[in-house]
Amino acid sequence: MSDLRIRFRKEYLSQLHQRSTIRTQVYKPKIGDIVLLWSENLKRIHWPLGRILPIYASKDGIVRRARIKTKSGIVIRPIRKLCPLELDGESLITNEARSS
């Protein structure tokens, strides 16, 4: 089990973070997206996992914050400190329907 955790940390999470930082598009969060909450005090493997609840736009209409439900409670974080996982539930259902 520890080998799986080490491999997950080294391979998947590092690629996920690299992909989210070099994107040409800006991440547009949706309610229900699963994200990792970036933290400079924790190793990537220990970043909390959460689900986006409501999102909040600033006066200029750009989404800048989101309310996130985590295992330990509900927090509000800036979008730039969220690391989205590859697929949300809606995308997964759409892709499965296409392949059937």
From TrEMBL:
InterPro entries on file: DUF5641
Superkingdom of source: Eukaryota
Domain DUF5641: 7-85
Name of a matching Pfam family: DUF5641
PANTHER family from the UniProt entry: GAG-LIKE PROTEIN, PHD-TYPE DOMAIN-CONTAINING PROTEIN
Protein's name in the database: DUF5641 domain-containing protein
Organism: Araneus ventricosus (Orbweaver spider)
Phylogenetic classification of the source organism: Eukaryota, Metazoa, Ecdysozoa, Arthropoda, Chelicerata
